[in-house]
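Subject — a protein and its fold
Fields — amino acid sequence, structure tokens
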Amino acid sequence: MIDPRDLKLKLAVRNITALFLAGIFILAGCQGQSILDVVFPQAESQLGGLGTPTPDDVIELAVTPMPDSQAPIDLMLWVLPQFDPSGETESSLLLNERIDEFLIRNPQVNLNIRVKALSGPGGMLDSLTGASAVAQGALPSVVLLSRSDLVLAANRGLLFPIEEISSSVDESDWYPFAQAMAIHQGSVFGLPFASNALGLLVRENQLADNQPSWDEVLRRLRSLVFPAGDTDSLITLALYLSAGGTLDFQMGHVEINPEALTSALNVYDRARRAGVVRSDVLDYQNDDQAWEAFNAGSSGAVITWVHRLFTTDEDLDLALLPPLGENPMTLGTGWAWCITEPDEQKREYAVALAEFLSAPGFLSQWAPLSGYLPVRPSSLDGFKDEIIQNTLSTLLMSARLRPDRQAMTEVGKQIETSVAEVINAIASAEESAFNVINRLEESENP
């Protein structure tokens, strides 16, 4: 057990660890090294080769010792369709084997697995809220939640913090943004499992390397597609943050740096003038639409979620988002195992299951097969393409957790309006940046 009095200390340690890893990332970038080599120089020898930990290595990652009990322990696990262990993909089979191994080690546990849709009636969050309203006994034990659903579920009191039972999230082998993904308002509500991040997917070797500048992108690419009509404005937000912008939410007010936002919007103005970005990108209101347009057209590149690279049959190159500052920066998100078990004794088994399904040895095998990105640096061992491995290393170490959607609703809408102003040549980048600030002030003081 972890003493609750230590929680403030642990939060401080998490912050120090994140700063330490960020410092290593910058040092590694300057020396041309992979961040994996810097943080885990013996990763290959410890795991017995790329992505193939031996059975003994995996067994050493045993769960936390369970309380002695002969009574049956009934647990319920809810997963999303893309993570269904009963599927026929390699990652599904591996996850199913991992669950079976947990049950072999804990024969007193009976586990029922249900697949829940991502959203809508009967979806994950809707079902979780409904089960809570019916009775505590109707709640599952462990649920796999997206970051946005984790925040909503925590705010509704549907999740149990796990830091009094598990200290796994305080391990060093997490990407800082993935570690932050499991934490909400200072409490740990889950253990990271899979992630995703924004990047640049390019056709036909059009870029010289995987860390291009905007000058190179605008010079080399014939066209660029992205969801410019997205009201979340994630791509613009990533550019804004890379330009040194910050988001400071206080008492219903958000501070926007006009210079950083001007720099971000100026990218679109330059791209429009160069003919690389056309006004039809404003029709793409989400990532799916932009990806469909990229696949159907002749665009040279698309800004999208990087998991697309592993789900397409087309041979594409992966590059980082060109930064507007000295270092690369992108936005990331993902999924975490969260605890919803109301019974205190069962909750310890539920946490142990979550730890078992997010252990380093398992994720180093599962992550490369999953079609998603790792949450642990050690998992990069399983990506056998050295170029992809190095690019993902930099991408994931430079990722910041995307802001929670609820906080960004109004800001995202106003930024999206200004993106349209610039791409349609209605206003300059500077004028449009100040338009965002003025509209936000008007919405806060009607």
In short: DSSP finds 17 helices and 13 strands in the chain. The radius of gyration is 22 Å. Residues 1-13, 15-65 have pLDDT under 50 and may be disordered.
